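HUMAN:
Sorry, I am quite new to this. Are you able to go through these amino acid letters and fold codes? The numbers rather puzzle me.
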Amino acid sequence: METSLGNAGVLARSSLMPFNHPGLWRQLPRLLKNDTVQFRYRRSYLAKNLGWAARFLLNARPAVFQETAAALDELIRLSAPEHLRLLDASGARHRLRDTGWIFLYRSEQAWNGGERSRRAYAQFQVPTQMLAPAELADLEPALAPIFHRALWIQGSYSVDDPHEVVAAYADLFRRSGGTFRCLTASGIRRDGQGWTVHGAQGSETLRADQLVVALGPWSKSLLKTTGIDLPMAFERGYHMHYSGQNGARVSRPVYDTGGGYVLSPMARGLRLTTGVELDDCEAPARPVQLELSEARAREAFPLGERLDPAAWLGRRPTLPDSRPMIGEAPRHPGLWLALGHQHIGFSTAPGTAKILGELMFDANSRARHHAFRPGRFI
């Protein structure tokens, strides 16, 4: 009911490209003006998190970028067949599309600005195809003829309702003998040979020999009760569903690089998801970014009326190198972490689970998954 309720539903090889790539330095003066549709921030939040911001920028160095892109590519490649297996086993395969997604560029300058990404896609053998305006019109005729070029990311998938996919996976877990227990957790501590999760206001507890913390952005506050202070920031984002005028649709997600939004065809309508807003995890919603994105989207597509009573808000937990933590927490035996997936948690969750299982049951696998070790920040 959290981030997977509201993401763009994309399972894409192109997600290996982190936000803090070497080209970020050139973009920084423009982004710091805090008036773009792609990136917004609350000044007081950034002021409190200058250490995280500095480390985030330092990890945009070419050598670190290469390590991160290779690690994310491995995780995405591992996740895709696991998603297909789970979709079949859970009965949710009908929600899958294998039509890829399309990046849209409004000018030659914007196209040239994407050269670094295209080089990375070529390096990691992500299949792509450049589209001229006429070719784009053949694929997505409802788009307005305002785009100079487009890049079709192939060999990738999307789903028409990520929430229903995750719910189907949860049902599969139950049918396989698993159980869910809900608890408002106030803290965790090591107790003898295992771990205890304490509920709020003296409510029930949970106990396990091996405990996995996989709470996305809420992992930070819970892990503080063990003395672990995660260097995590929150890239918030919004979505809204729309009808299409006269039944207009897109057949796959499209990313308007100049407009700063993704438009995805969903079971509930056309879902518009926004770019990044840096702010506290639980800060009140500020839908100005959605309003800006909607205005740009209406330039490109005949959006109809809003279908939701209010904008949805999600949080993306981001570590300074844009890689998740997957593995055992240093000096905390039996405490396992699977968190910090920034924008690609839905894409990479199955691969994360597979890596975590390997690490739990095969100590020799640590070298293979060194890039995700929690010890790089703990």
About this structure: The first strand starts at residue 10 and ends at 11. The CA atoms of residues 108 and 148 lie 6 Å apart. The two ends are 29 Å apart (CA to CA). The mean pLDDT is 95.
